From TrEMBL:
<dbReference type="InterPro" id="IPR045092">
    <property type="entry name" value="Rrp6-like"/>
</dbReference>
<dbReference type="InterPro" id="IPR002562">
    <property type="entry name" value="3'-5'_exonuclease_dom"/>
</dbReference>
<keyword id="KW-0269">Exonuclease</keyword>
<keyword id="KW-0479">Metal-binding</keyword>
<dbReference type="GO" id="GO:0019219">
    <property type="term" value="P:regulation of nucleobase-containing compound metabolic process"/>
</dbReference>
<protein>
    <recommendedName>
        <fullName>Exosome complex component 10</fullName>
    </recommendedName>
</protein>
<dbReference type="GO" id="GO:0071044">
    <property type="term" value="P:histone mRNA catabolic process"/>
</dbReference>
<keyword id="KW-0234">DNA repair</keyword>
<keyword id="KW-0378">Hydrolase</keyword>
<comment type="subunit">
    <text>Component of the RNA exosome complex. The catalytically inactive RNA exosome core complex (Exo-9) associates with the catalytic subunit EXOSC10/RRP6 (via its N-terminus). Exo-9 may associate with DIS3 to form the nucleolar exosome complex, or DIS3L to form the cytoplasmic exosome complex. The RNA exosome complex interacts with cofactors C1D/RRP47, MPHOSPH6/MPP6 and MTREX/MTR4. Interacts with MTREX; the interaction with MTREX mediates the association of MTREX with nuclear RNA exosomes.</text>
</comment>
<dbReference type="GO" id="GO:0005737">
    <property type="term" value="C:cytoplasm"/>
</dbReference>
<keyword id="KW-0271">Exosome</keyword>
<dbReference type="InterPro" id="IPR012337">
    <property type="entry name" value="RNaseH-like_sf"/>
</dbReference>
<dbReference type="GO" id="GO:0071051">
    <property type="term" value="P:poly(A)-dependent snoRNA 3'-end processing"/>
</dbReference>
<dbReference type="GO" id="GO:0000166">
    <property type="term" value="F:nucleotide binding"/>
</dbReference>
<keyword id="KW-0832">Ubl conjugation</keyword>
<feature type="domain" description="HRDC">
    <location>
        <begin position="479"/>
        <end position="559"/>
    </location>
</feature>
């Protein structure tokens, strides 16, 4: 037993000497640090000597290197000496604090283990249940296939591409004006408003006249070009477009090249874009698709354009070439070239909004699939049906602003248009077969595609009643205070989204805004509690939002604002909207309804144009007889208390207040006045016809 005791004591002696050496080193280092010049005048004085500066620089690099090695050893962020990745002393200090926390935590765990306390499992409060991993339908593929999830690729600190745009994004609360300045393939020349750059950029304050007169002149010039400003630049060309004979003939499908053997060129320079446009002008048809990002931009940004011909594929970096994309108008508006899209409703608007590019002669495969009644009209289904290709949708939720794009995202983008021309051939052949060799179905799809080309981008405009549209969609019932809070929050969100160029969903999602308006929190912390997770700009402007809630709480509390959802709901329709409704067919309905009501009211009025004695006399005109029949149709609940008509009543007793007959006569008269048919006359006595 002596050996073990000797061994333990020897081990303890070595440990004590090691810990003593470490403690001495730390103490000496602390003393050396205390002997350094103090911050302030003393340090500035020594700093003036070049030798001291060089010494500090060398020793500082040694210390940073040593600290970086320690951080790397403990698994912490170790780029403390990388000046390119840090913005200053504060970030280095944060790294040191973070590393100290990690190291001290490890020291604490080791000390607990040495004391016999196991910390393999963290101590949790009573009733705590660990979170479960939820697998939902959006990130799981069913069946017996291998599990495959979608990749939500995004960059946390990506530079906003809007900052590099030559033409700044216009988020103002004004209507969208087309960006086109040159009109290739024009049958009708472009309006002078678009060709005259000076006229387009002219502002009222630029005129050398008094401000009031400047506004007047600017309004006159604007009204002069009003029709041109908001019209479709290719309206005339599309209206006179005729489907080519080649589209009427049943095609022989041209098989596509294998994706791996097809060249795909990434275009991010002006020279490459010009070369691509020349290739497209020599083609008979080409396929187009766009990738769009809308979360970190108010109007959205088109980040990528994919184009495929029969021989090769192209991917255009539209963020880099945003101001030069108008060059493609030469090929996109050529009526002899077919542009193949799938579901082009949004693509047409994005091309106009971001690039000023328009499309003439398009074929939408989505409408072709609908005409064939395929059941499913998605591109995935068409690729599987005609190409036996399983579309890869793992990156459909990716952030397409990422640069450089990963290889897998480029491959995903290429596949969107690579097979589309072959699908276009197969759909045309099936449309011919479905129409027994005729071209009527193809012409129907072509006509619908042409209507899509005529679609114009409409900019979202904020009005005082804009919030009501969202309020009706949510199907909530708010009182006056809640509705006022919702209106203020909606206006704040729209204004901030336009100024910061962020989407309204990023500023404050709809469900969070409804929650805040419904709860009306009394404290700023309550607003944050309604948001999980809290949007960054909500946290920054929490005080302003709190003031909105306080302002809404000061409004008198009224009953809940009921919201009807029927087609004839006009409870929240403005006067201008009601005027517009009169032109949609409701005027005839209202006119006929009012006519019937007037006839009923006039008929009811007639029975009060004569005295009851005249009715008893039997000398009635035709109109009085009709009125009498109407009056008899009403059942008088007080008839049992009225005197019988067969009893002779003296006129003196009828007008003698002391008699019972007088009381019954007054009751009879008041009952007749309370009958429903007389309500209109009582409200407006002037409408009553004169007796006789």
């Amino acid at each position: 037993m002596a050996a073990p005791v000797s061994g333990e004591s020897g081990s303890g002696a070595r440990g004590d000497s090691g810990s003593g050496h470490g403690l001495g080193t730390v103490v000496s280092a602390t003393k050396a640090a205390g002997g350094l010049p103090q911050p302030g005048d003393e340090f500035d004085f020594y700093r003036s000597f070049p030798g001291f500066q060089d010494f500090c620089a060398v020793q500082g690099e040694r210390l940073l290197h040593c600290m970086s090695q320690l951080m790397k050893h403990h698994g912490c962020r170790s780029h403390i000496n990388d000046k390119n990745k840090l913005t200053g002393l504060e970030e280095r200090f944060d790294l040191v604090v973070e590393s100290n926390d990690v190291i001290l935590e490890k020291v604490g765990i080791m000390l607990d283990e040495a004391s016999g306390v196991t910390r393999s499992q963290p101590v949790m409060p009573a009733g705590y249940q660990p979170p479960k991993i939820v697998v939902s339908s959006w990130n799981r593929k069913g069946g017996n296939r291998s599990t495959e999830t979608f990749h939500l690729l995004h960059a946390k600190n990506i530079q906003r591409p809007q900052l590099k745009f030559k033409d700044k994004v216009d988020n103002s609360n004004t209507p969208f004006i087309p960006k086109i300045s040159v009109k290739p393939n024009a049958v009708k020349p472009l309006s002078s408003y678009f060709t005259n750059k000076q006229l387009r950029n002219e502002r009222p304050e630029d005129l050398d006249v008094p401000p009031a007169l400047a506004d007047f002149i600017h309004q006159l010039r604007t009204q002069e070009h009003m029709d041109d400003m908001f019209s479709h630049p290719y309206q005339h060309e599309l209206d006179h477009l005729v489907m080519s004979e080649s589209l009427r003939i049943k095609p022989e499908p041209q098989i596509y090249k294998p994706l791996e053997e097809t060249s795909c060129k990434f275009i991010d320079t002006l020279e490459d874009l010009v070369d691509l446009n020349e290739k497209l002008t020599r083609s008979k048809e080409f396929a187009v698709d766009l990738e769009h990002h809308s979360y970190r931009s108010f109007l959205g940004i088109t980040c990528l354009m994919q184009i495929s011909t029969r021989e090769e594929d192209f991917i255009i970096d539209t963020l880099e070439l945003r101001s030069e994309m108008y060059i493609l108008n030469e090929s996109f508006t050529d009526p002899s070239i077919v542009k193949v899209f799938h579901g082009a409703d949004s693509d047409i608007e994005w091309l106009q909004k971001d690039f000023g590019v328009y499309v003439v002669n398009m074929f939408d495969t989505h409408h072709a699939a609908r005409s064939l009644n395929l059941g499913r009209n998605s591109l995935d289904h068409l690729l599987k049906l005609y190409c036996n290709v399983d579309s890869n949708k793992r990156y459909q939720l990716a952030d397409w602003r990422i640069r450089p794009l990963p290889e897998e995202m480029l491959a995903y983008a290429q596949a969107d248009t690579h097979y589309l021309l072959y699908v276009y051939d197969r759909l045309r052949a099936d449309l011919c077969d479905a129409a027994n060799g005729q071209s009527n179905l193809i012409h129907l799809v072509w006509s619908k595609s042409k209507d899509l080309c005529l679609k114009k981008y409409v900019k979202p405009i904020f009005t005082e009643e804009s919030y009501m549209e969202l309020y009706r969609r949510q199907k909530k019932s708010f009182n006056s205070q809640q509705l006022a809070a919702f209106r203020l929050l909606y206006a704040w969100r729209d204004k901030l989204a336009r100024s910061e160029d962020e989407s309204t969903g990023y500023i404050l999602p709809n469900h969070m805004m409804m929650k805040i308006a419904e709860e009306l929190p009394k404290e700023p912390q309550g607003i944050i509690a309604c948001c999980n997770p809290t949007p960054p700009l909500v946290r920054q402007q929490i005080n302003e939002l709190h003031q909105f809630i306080k302002q809404a709480r000061e409004i008198p509390l009224l009953k809940s604002e009921s919201t009807l959802f029927g087609p004839h709901d006009t409870s929240h329709v403005s006067e201008s909207d009601l005027m517009e409704l009169s032109f949609t067919g409701r005027s005839n309905f209202l006119t006929s309804t009012l006519t019937v009501l007037c006839n009923i009211i006039l008929s009811a009025l007639l029975m009060f144009t004569f005295e009851v004695e005249e009715m008893d006399s039997g000398h009635l005109t035709v109109a009085q007889q009709k009125a009498h029949s109407i009056m008899e149709s009403f059942e008088n609940p007080f008839r049992m208390y009225l005197p019988s008509k067969d009893i002779h009543i003296s006129k003196n007793a009828k007008y003698d207040p002391s008699s019972k007959i007088y009381e019954h006569w007054q009751l009879n008269t008041s009952t007749l006045r309370l009958m429903p048919s007389d309500s209109a006359t009582l409200r407006n006595p002037e409408c009553s016809p004169k007796p006789g």
